[in-house]
């Protein structure tokens, strides 16, 4: 799959950091933590994906490349619109050079309450093809 152009991010998605309030943690992954937050001017609750380059990256060129990767992620999310994908609401630079905040629709509920077996039983497509 081709990589989205990191310069192709719609300018209206850029949000000033002063317009973002970060709350408590929701979850954590390998390269990001997710917090509950708010876009103050819109009075809208959001999920804030805080992406930081790993501490092991010492070279500023590698940090810039990692930030470029995250901007490509933002550009890709900006192109997606589907009821099963949380909506990208905006982004802003973080407090550090290697930090980006991706502001996403705050999903209601949790997929964790659904087991994989439950999800498979509702999927009409079999994992085994018959020819």
UniProtKB/TrEMBL annotation:
InterPro entries attached to this UniProt entry: Kinase-like_dom_sf, Prot_kinase_dom, Protein_kinase_ATP_BS, Ser/Thr_Kinases-Pseudokinases
Residues reported in the UniProt entry to bind ATP: 49
The Protein kinase domain, residue ranges: 20-131
Pfam families (alphabetical): Pkinase (PF00069)
GO molecular function, one term: protein serine/threonine kinase activity
Keyword entries, A-Z: ATP-binding, Kinase, Nucleotide-binding, Transferase
Signal sequence, renumbered to the chain: none
Residues that span the membrane, as ranges: none
Keyword Thylakoid part of the UniProt annotation: no
PANTHER family reported in the protein's UniProt record: PROTEIN KINASE DOMAIN-CONTAINING PROTEIN, SERINE/THREONINE-PROTEIN KINASE TNNI3K-RELATED
Protein name: Serine-threonine protein kinase, putative
Species of provenance: Bodo saltans (Flagellated protozoan)
Lineage: Eukaryota, Discoba, Euglenozoa, Kinetoplastea, Metakinetoplastina
């Amino acid at each position: 799959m081709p990589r989205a152009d990191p310069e192709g991010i719609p300018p209206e998605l850029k949000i000033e950091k002063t317009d973002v309030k970060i709350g408590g943690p929701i979850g954590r992954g390998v390269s990001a933590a997710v917090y509950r937050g708010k876009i103050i001017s819109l009075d809208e609750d959001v999920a804030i994906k805080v992406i930081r380059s790993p501490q092991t990256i010492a070279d500023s060129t590698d940090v810039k490349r990692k930030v470029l990767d995250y901007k490509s992620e933002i550009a890709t999310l900006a192109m997606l619109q589907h009821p099963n994908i949380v909506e990208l609401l905006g982004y802003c630079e973080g407090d550090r050079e290697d930090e980006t905040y991706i502001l996403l629709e705050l999903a209601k509920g949790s997929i964790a309450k659904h087991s994989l077996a439950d999800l498979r039983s509702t999927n009409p497509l079999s994992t085994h093809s018959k020819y």
